[in-house]
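Both lines are given unchanged directly below:

***
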Amino acid sequence: MAMLEIKDINVYYGAIHAIKGISLEVNEGEIVTLIGANGAGKSTTLRTISGLLKPKTGEINFCGKNISGLPAHQIVHEGISQVPEGRRIFAEMTVMENLELGAFIRNDKEEISKDLQMVFGRFPRLEERKLQLAGTLSGGEQQMLAMGRALMSRPKLLLLDEPSMGLAPLLIREIFSIIEDINKTGTTVLLVEQNANMALSIANRAYVLETGRITISGDAAKLAASEDIRKAYLGG
């Protein structure tokens, strides 16, 4: 059984039909990526999974439970955490306070401090800057903070929305190797990414979204090698 199963969801923004009957699944332990042009509905899909938007029809099952109508904070309790597009860190709070907020649903103090050490181990720069205001960090450090904050809730499934946006190529590589690392240590990942080359290089499977519909899906390596995909998304 898939960890996440989306069945025929339709999502509207007012009168705009943004997601048109898409179905997809993510199995435990996978990295699955959603690629597509700007405005294809990638972020809308993630926001619907995390409960920020409600599907008009269709259902979303997570670990065998229908979560379609649940409020966002309840979905975090179920084990899904999202790193939003544009990072959305709390600029006026310190790095440490941002990370502690990530664990707001937990009260196992010892385990929380273990997870803080795990985040600092993965993102040493955050430890160096833990008392700094988050708004003073560079773009790359803010992305690391947003990822660290999401990991503090110990998610089973991590949703990443455009993690490479606005970052220099070297940093993009660093962020992607961290994503692979997070996945290897047992977190399932659903990744939305403009940088289709990078996304396909680390994903197991991929779905291509075009104007609210899934047009192609399959093995990520095969899609990366496909002539049509290369022309449309990989600058080939």
